Amino acid sequence: MTKFKLRIALSFAVLIAASSATVAQSRIQLAQGRRLIQDKVSFVIEVSPDRRNDPRYTTAPEDLQIQTRFMDKPVTGKAYIDGKAVGRFDEAMSFNSNLLDITYGRHTITLALAAPSFMMDFFVTVRGGVVREILDDKEPPAVLPPALEKRVGELEQKVQELENEIASLKKKRQH
Length: 175
Description:
The chain is an alpha+beta fold. It has two helices and nine strands; from the N terminus they run H-E-E-E-E-E-E-E-E-E-H.
């Protein structure tokens, strides 16, 4: 066998070995380009079993990972899956989550930012499953984290108190 044929055969063998050794992985890009995020953005995905029917993934895929990059300036915020916080980033230009447990079915992924920023891209990778985005005509309902929900309630109460005080002062001024 000539050296050229040997190299081709060896390259082919390495390619086959590498492809069979990889874990079934599905990656989807949910955003790309220059996307302004005022305070939060949500994506609905569906995770389903892959076609190979690997017994290793009978009940659930191996894991899920979120990756995103921001433009222009560092960003602070949190990432949520189905309303549960799964990661935090502080003054970062990108966010790569840890490997997260996930089940088959629909899930809502939300990024909540402390200040408006531009997102460059957003990837979701699922090992051992297939992931696809669910595109509906309407945005998924936002799930506020408990601390934020409490703060919104406090601020609404403060606004009501101030409106009552203004009304009281207007009455006194008229008399």
